[in-house]
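JOB MANIFEST
job_type = single_chain_structure
chain_count = 1
residues = 74
[input]
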Amino acid sequence: MARLFGDEVAKRVGPIWASARTRNCRAMFARTGQPGLWFIAGSLAQCRIYSKYLALQINACEVGLIAPDLSPAA
């Protein structure tokens, strides 16, 4: 992350994928701490299912239903 976008963006986004302790996916299929930066990954089945929900979130940010600059709950 830092190599591609710099240390500041990497710091705002935080960890990606699962943490070893909680096994929760972080920064996938949801808003990140960096406005306009979204991640989707996984198997074809995961991406196919979650792309709809990701698109709905992006659209909600674009039309002002949710603030685009809030990071997801940790």
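[summary]
The chain has a mean pLDDT of 84.
The chain has three helices and two strands.
exit_status = 0
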